[in-house]
Design a protein that fits this description.
The chain has a single domain (2-165), classed as Rossmann fold (3-Layer(aba) Sandwich), CATH 3.40.50. The strands form 2 sheets. It has a 3-stranded parallel β-sheet. It has helices spanning 11-20, 47-58, 69-72, 79-89, 101-104, 113-119, 147-152, 170-178, 189-198; strands at 2-4, 29-33, 64-66, 96-100, 121-125, 158-161. Helix 4 packs parallel to helix 6 (113-119). With 202 residues, the protein is an alpha/beta fold. The chain is 36% helix and 12% strand.
């Protein structure tokens, strides 16, 4: 389960999951664009535009799929509820939550974050050499560097992936668009065209 705003989806959103697919012995990765945020953050574009661009970016990978579960809800979306939904959908599978380092930095403030750890393992995509858990004393006991132990367990483990770091961010891309700077090397060709034609993020 890859949760994020994907506003917009960029090349690192695709390259890193492709890279980690075999490392974590996935069967598939489900991209779940966030719905109504409990902290009041709103995407810069419509849900349909975010879904369209995710489709453009992922269509060549059969093992990468998209769920609009949170987007279909007309209420605030807590990650714990999304995870419980997918646990019911895949009762026999080991679920993993993939999140970026920037989102993980506030993980201890998430609604029922300890319940989330009880339900699955977490993969944190590291952007630089700073480990976000260094200041999270309540989470240190769950961190492991043992990838085999992580893959064998069902829950209560956190693993940092730093094998493919990227400085690309959705915020950076939005800012470049507003500053009339090129973005074609950061997004797929289809999405570059889509953003320009629809004049998104202007």
């Amino acid at each position: 389960m890859y949760l994020g705003s994907f506003d917009p989806v960029h090349n690192a959103h695709v390259q890193i999951p492709v890279k980690i697919f075999s490392t974590y012995k996935f069967d598939k990765i489900i991209y779940i664009p966030t719905g109504l945020s409990p902290v009041g953050k709103k995407p810069s574009i419509s849900n349909s535009d975010r879904l369209k661009m995710l489709g453009n970016a992922l269509h060549q990978y059969k093992y990468l799929s998209i769920s609009d579960y949170e987007l279909r809800l007309n209420t605030i979306c807590y990650s714990i509820n999304t995870i419980k939904f997918f646990k019911e959908e895949y009762p026999q599978d080991k679920l993993r939550l993939i999140i970026g380092e920037d989102n993980f930095e506030s993980f201890e403030k998430w609604h029922k974050y300890s319940d989330i750890i009880d339900l699955l393992n977490i993969i944190v995509l590291i952007r630089d050499n700073t480990k976000s858990c260094d200041k999270m004393n309540t989470l240190k006991e769950f961190i492991t560097d043992d990838i085999d132990q992580f893959n064998d367990s069902n829950s209560k483990m956190i693993h940092y992936f730093n094998g493919l770091k990227s400085n690309i961010s959705s915020t950076m891309i939005r800012n470049r668009i507003r500053d009339n700077k090129p973005i074609e090397k950061y997004v797929s060709a289809d999405n570059h065209k889509y953003i320009l034609e629809k004049k998104l993020y202007k």
